[in-house]
Specification:
12 helices; 16 strands; FAD-bd; 360 residues; FAD/NAD(P)-binding domain; binds flavin-adenine dinucleotide; 6-stranded mixed sheet; alpha/beta
Length: 360
């Protein structure tokens, strides 16, 4: 792309693109690569895994993240495979409703519903769009050990929870900490009308739509290590909780250790050429279901700022990105951590009384 970086001709010019390396081909890394390719940047994507990972269950995509996907040219691909999430409740183990999740309010305010999409579909859509744009093939089997060796104009650390880019450029004060809660996630091959979360003493069970004919579920119980432990912990809970556990092959369950980044990073950017997105920047517990949304919002905001400033003004672009995203993403992470405490309390009486004050 020919451009006049300094505007010396007095014309309104497109900021000059540059070169970028994106580390990690998860949701955040692929979205960042798409945004940069759309701005004309030359992009390499390095992924540690040897092939695309096609596992994972459902992601909630909030309307703000849908708008980010629209700006990245992926809105239609998302809507083709996603289901609206319109009605869900928080319940007690006996099935009595404590409160409604505010999905209608979200839809009224945004003019579109929250969507649910399976992780493999979202990853496939991102890979297809990157392929359509051309010029960048994900380089699999490239687990980066020393990010300082990368010489591109821009390095995007999208390498998840244990980010090597974060460690190399931001130090180890902010580290991923475990919370002692293990969640199990799975997909059952039947649909249910009952969606939302059911909260018991120190444990919870959630269920959402994911695609026609299937239900996404997740569950956390202290000390449960086997399928038998998990099934026993939810025995006697309201329908369809035991049926969902009984109806999913434990070989397909995903074990998900709950972790978060602590303390929060003082900046998402470093040295005028390194930026973190997604879990690398703000790994959070999954309680608010915002892991994919925040990664998409980061990637879109970063690449919009970089496209607007061009490679000649990268430090300014990265400052704009940090200003737009850091506080917002860290607020979501804190909210998710707080909800994790609330949901897993071993003294549920006060919690249920408080939640009972909300509209059912
Ligand atoms: C296989 C998989 C399945 C998941 N399933 C679910 C799920 O079912 N439900 C849910 O809520 N969340 C799931 N998550 C987490 C969720 O995808 C993220 O929390 C969220 O989407 C943020 O995405 P991210 O791109 O920041 O990080 P991630 O999705 O974790 O992507 C990071 C990528 O970076 C790669 N990587 C890491 N280190 C290096 C390195 N040194 N060099 C090169 N590449 C590296 C990883 O292999 C990975 O592909 C899953 C993550 C993965 C990787």
């Amino acid at each position: 792309m020919e451009s006049d970086r300094n505007g010396e001709n007095g014309t309104n010019t497109t900021p000059a693109p540059g070169t970028a390396v994106v580390v990690g081909a998860g949701v955040g890394g692929l979205a960042a690569a798409i945004g940069l390719r759309r701005a004309g940047w030359s992009v390499r994507v390095l992924e540690g895994r040897s092939t695309p990972e096609r596992y994972g269950t459902a992601f909630g995509i909030h309307p703000t993240a849908q708008a980010a996907l629209d700006r990245l040219g992926l809105g239609e691909a998302l809507r083709a495979r996603a289901l609206p999430y319109r009605r869900a409740h928080i319940r007690r183990p006996d099935g009595t409703v404590l409160a409604a999740l505010p999905l209608e309010r979200v839809e009224r305010k945004a003019g579109r519903p929250e969507l649910l999409v399976s992780r493999p579909h979202l990853i496939d859509a991102l890979l297809a769009e990157l392929g359509r744009l051309g010029g960048t093939d994900v380089e699999y089997g490239q687990r980066l050990t020393d990010p300082r060796t990368l010489t591109a104009d821009l390095v995007v650390g999208a390498d998840g929870l244990n980010s090597a880019v974060r460690t190399a450029h931001f130090g180890t004060r902010s580290r991923v900490r475990t919370l002692g809660t293990v969640a199990w996630i799975g997909i059952a091959d039947f649909e249910t009308e009952i969606h939302g979360e059911t909260w018991g003493r120190g444990r919870f069970f959630g269920m959402t739509p994911v695609e026609p004919g299937r239900t996404n579920w997740y569950a956390a119980v202290p000390g449960a290590t086997t399928a038998a432990d998990l099934r026993a912990a939810f025995d006697g809970w309201h329908d369809p909780v035991p049926r969902l556990l009984a109806g999913t092959d434990p070989a397909t369950w995903i074990r998900y250790e709950m972790r978060h980044l602590h303390p929060a990073l003082p900046s998402f950017v470093s040295a005028g050429r390194v930026a973190l997105v997604g879990d690398a920047a703000h790994a959070m517990t999954p309680n608010l279901g915002q892991g994919a949304c925040t990664a998409l919002l980061d990637a879109e905001a970063l690449t919009r700022a970089v496209a607007a400033h061009g490679s000649a003004a990268l430090p300014a672009a990265l400052r704009a990105y940090d200003a737009e995203r850091r506080r917002s993403a860290q607020r979501v992470a804190l909210g998710s951590r707080t909800l994790h405490r609330f949901v897993t309390t071993r003294r549920p009486t006060l919690r249920d009384a408080l939640i009972g004050l909300l509209p059912a």
